Amino acid sequence: MAKRISRRLIPLLLAVLAMGCARGGSSSPSRSSHQDSTGHDSTLFQVVPGQRFGAVTDSVSHADLARLFGAANVHEVRVQCAEGSCDERGTVVKVPGCPDTLRVFWRDTVALRGPSTVEAALSFSQYGDSTLHGCWRTEEGLGVGTTLRELESFNGPFQLEPLGEWDYAGYVGPWLHGRLSGVLEPPSGPRIGLRVDFLSSHGLSDSEFEQLSKPGRDSLQSDEPLLRKLNPSVVEMTMTFVREL
Fold first, then answer.
1. What percent of the chain has pLDDT over 70?
2. Inter-residue contact 47 to 146 (CB < 8 Å)
3. Is 0.70 surpassed by the pTM of this model?
4. Is 149 within 8 Å of 222 (Cβ atoms)?
5. Fewer CB atoms inside 10 A, N or C side of the chain?
6. 77 - beta bridge partners?
7. Are 195 and 243 in contact (CB under 8 A)?
8. Which of 201, 227, 49 has the alpha carbon at shortest distance from 149?
9. Confidence band (pLDDT; 50, 70, 90) for 243?
10. From its phi and psi, is residue 195 left (phi > 0), alpha (psi between -120 and 50) or beta?
11. What is the DSSP secondary-structure string of the chain?
12. CA distance 109 to 146
């Protein structure tokens, strides 16, 4: 009797084992479901407004980033602010497979701890390449590579700074009470800022691009025909951490 029962169980046991393998029960070194195309834990790139910029939280340090991303991908550099208002020790994270580079400004520039600002951005040489999509993104998929039209589909019309070669060109905002005002600018905690490509003029004549540039304009509206025709992509995403007193 025991032998007949064990024989009947064999097909069932084989089916259970097969289901286990199909669900990833194999011990083979396949990539974890929590890893992205870079081979890193995907949570290292999840941007959560009000909380964290991927692995960068209010208390993170340069040493923490080197441990999380690998020392070969994390470097101490001099970082400069807009208009030359600062030149200090900072951190750059360049992950193979990611077109965007992470740059961190620190509150403590001696111990390199406690970020003041963090940004994921393309280099100038990458501007105008619509195929590039950054690794650091929000739950909604917003990040480097998101186009102006895509931002409008989330938010509705919004304002942005004029384009061209000046320090604050292409910065987005205000959101004019649209959806992204609540998503990217929570009432407490670090806020997210975006900047679109302010140099590439593909599809526009020189005179058309000039109409979108300083010094002729004080601000732009995203639903302007020329701006929609240009449809610039996000080239920089930043998070500014509020220092608690």
1. 80
2. no
3. yes
4. no
5. C
6. 90
7. no
8. 227
9. low
10. beta
11. -HHHHHHHHHHHHHHHHHHHIIIIIS-S-PPPTTB-TTSSBGGGGEEETTTEETTB-TT-BHHHHHHHH-GGGEEEEEEE-GGG--EEEEEEE--TT-SSEEEEEEEETTTTEEEEEEEEE--GGGTT-TT---S-EETT--BTT-BHHHHHHHH-S-EE--BSSSTTTTBB---TT-HHHHHHS-SSS-EEEEEE-SS--TTS-HHHHHHTBTTT-S-EETT-HHHHHH-PBEEEEEEEPPPP-
12. 32
How are beta strands 46-48 and 191-196 bridged, if at all?
Answer: unpaired
Structure tokens at 217: 């304009």
- 117 forms beta bridges with 105, 240
Contact 95, 69 (CB under 8 A): yes
Single-letter code of the amino acid located at 4: R
Q: What is the pLDDT of residue 216?
A: 77
Which tokens is 93 given?
């994270």
Alpha-carbon dihedral 40, 151, 115, 98, rounded to 10 degrees:
30
Q: pLDDT (tens digit, 9 = 90+) per residue, 45-92?
A: 999 999 999 999 999 999 999 999 999 999 999 998 776 777 899 999
Structure token pair of residue 139: 């739950």
- Decide if pLDDT at 33 tops 60: no
